[in-house]
Amino acid sequence: MATVETQRQTVRAQAKWVHSSARKARLVTDLIRGRSVPEARTILAFSNRAVAKDVEKVLRSAIANATENLRWNGDDLVVVTAYADEGPTLKRWRARARGRVNRIRKRTCHITVELAQSAATVAAVAEAAAAPKRRAPRRKAAETTAEETTTVEATTDEPTAEETQS
Questions:
Q1: I need a labelling partner for 19 at 20 to 30 A (CA). Which of 34, 111, 144, 151 fits?
Q2: What pTM, to 2 d.p., does this model score?
Q3: Quick one: pLDDT at residue 128?
């Protein structure tokens, strides 16, 4: 039996050549993967790692892409994927004793964050789109004036002629 998967529409943002090692960035991206956007923002705001600021910038960029391009609400989004790939390593040298050198590796990484709408939001949007739109039937001008006059007479608090005679 074959399973049918529906593809979710996602929004992506990427920061390249971030001056941090991919290993350190992965520790932060693992914390926010699969979480809602408000929850991910809170986690990043209270993280002690320096790369958390860079990940938060990428998250904010992805949210901006979703709100501007697709008109999605930023609070209804979920972090589908968040990962850090290795970028190019800058190789530098440091002078040591007796004419020797030590290699210094300045590592970089590429941080990517993908967002999608939460399942509840997708279901609500699909339900609203599938439901038939019902409009009130159009009335003729003569019918509306007759109904309005009867409702006005029924809502007055003045006693009628029958009530004053008894």
A1: 34
A2: 0.73
A3: 77
